[in-house]
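Input sequence (125 aa), recorded before submission:
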Amino acid sequence: MDEIPIIFSYTREQAIEDGVLIDVTEQANQLGFKVNTCVTDHLYADYLVPPAGLEGEGQSIEGRLHDLLFRTWIAAKASSAGDRAEFDVLFLMKPGRWDTAHILAIMGPGDHGEPVLTIMLPEDE
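Predicted structure, token format:
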């Protein structure tokens, strides 16, 4: 059988360079993750960047990312789905108002077949 020619490909490296994926591997490694880890730009902008006015509430990108990664770790350990985990995370969006974000964490092959983790909102899949 003849190979089907590839018309277009978009690598993980290109997605990181374009800002479609945000590499959080360094922070993930601090929690024990052993693979390249990224979050989607949508998840990052909508939930990890604290909304204006929450500085006095102790909210920061670093803290929110830590919470997301910790929940990812717990969900991955508890998941029986193999390559994915689904879970919810609460994010403070305004003083006194929390939003629940449904999160997907998917393990898949990277640009060179290595295992990589992508954390996203369902609509980013």
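Checked by second reader. The mean pLDDT is 92.
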